[in-house]
Amino acid sequence: MNKKSAAVSRRRVLESGVAAAGALLATKGSGQERGKARVLALIGDRYHNPDYIRVGMDKVFQPLGLKVDYTIQYDSISRELLKNYQLLLILRDGMIWPDGYLGPDAYTAYEGGFENKDEFPPVKPQSWMTEEQGSAIQEFVKAGNGFYALHNSSHISLSSKNYRDVMGGAYIGHPTLRPFKVFIKNHDHPITSGLEDFIVNDEQHFVAYDKDPKYILAESDNLDRLNYEEHGSKSIAAWAYDYGKGRVVFTAVGHTIHALWVPQHVELQKRAVRWLLRNL
Questions:
Q1: Residue 68 counted as domain residue
Q2: pLDDT at position 25, please?
Q3: Residue 181 counted as domain residue
């Protein structure tokens, strides 16, 4: 064999080895990706900036090593989209505002500064979730996947019967931001076992609960005994149950980053995700 032939042969061997190694790495990487659960997170609305939610929830998902696709595209929720995921998370309400609204957020004080505010159309929300989308979520969970409903996602139940059936309750309302305590009511459930009660400064959401009381995990209470309208000072703050072959969790806290990041609440959220994915 001449030197030229030997050089070519050595190059082919090296190229073959590199290609084989690359193929092995690609296979290993693909296998890891296939083996990990994927999460779809629908976040953000007029009253809840999606950026704070993404930053807030990353503190939950990153330590768990989970890939999360965040979206604000409420109209994209469908059977076709959901088949790519094992966990659906929603933190947004059931309203859209096609005609727009004044102010960068919900506070009407911003509107007072506009000289031409009367030229804007009346603020009129519409519901976005269709019963077909609600049915798609039902089927997604019944097939063995997880659904994590947070904070104001209970509001969607007011406009979708199918969604309410899987989510388990519906929004009533909330007072302004103020401190309240979350009491763990079920100390035997994997999500709450060993967790301590915790205090947050947040919107205390009041919700109607439709399922068996045995699935309730936590309750919120204003320690100053400040009532919310005629609903008193207490409300259900978390629940978890099986739905078909899948699982559902609702937690009510979540209007601000500092409420999402209370250490006990972070742990509760991590456990909720793990339980939904059957890793707890």
A1: yes
A2: 27
A3: yes
pLDDT of residue 34: 53
Give me the mean pLDDT over the 155-181 stretch: 97
Amino acid code (one letter) for 69: D
CA distances in angstroms from 164 to 151, 168, 205, 276, listed in the order given: 14, 6, 16, 18
Structural contact between residues 90 and 156, judged by C-beta atoms closer than 8 angstroms:
yes
Q: What is the pTM of this model?
A: 0.85
* pLDDT single digits (tens) 184-224: 999 999 999 999 999 999 999 999 999 999 999 999 999 89
Give all strands (DSSP E) within the chain, no chain letters: 38-43, 67-71, 87-91, 95-96, 126-127, 146-150, 169-173, 178-184, 198-202, 206-209, 216-221, 234-243, 246-251
Give domain status of residue 18, yes or no: no
Domain with 264, as residue range(s), is: 37-94+129-276
Contacts of 223 (CB under 8 A, 6+ apart): 179, 180, 181
Give per-residue pLDDT as tens, 232-250.
999 999 999 999 999 999 9
Judged by DSSP in three states, 225 sits in coil
What is the Cα–Cα distance from 94 to 34, expressed in whole angstroms? 33
113 occurs within a structural domain = no
Instruction: Report the alpha-carbon distance of residue 108 to residue 128 in Å, rounded.
Output: 23
Token pair of 181 as six digits: 């305590």
Read off the pLDDT of each residue in 75-89 and give the average, rounded to a whole number. 98
| pLDDT higher than threshold 70 for residue 163 | yes
Neighbouring C-beta atoms of residue 271, cutoff 10 Å: 22
Q: How many domains does the chain have?
A: 1
CATH number for the domain harbouring residue 243:
3.40.50.880
CB 277 within 8 A of CB 269: no
Q: Residue 249 has what pLDDT?
A: 98
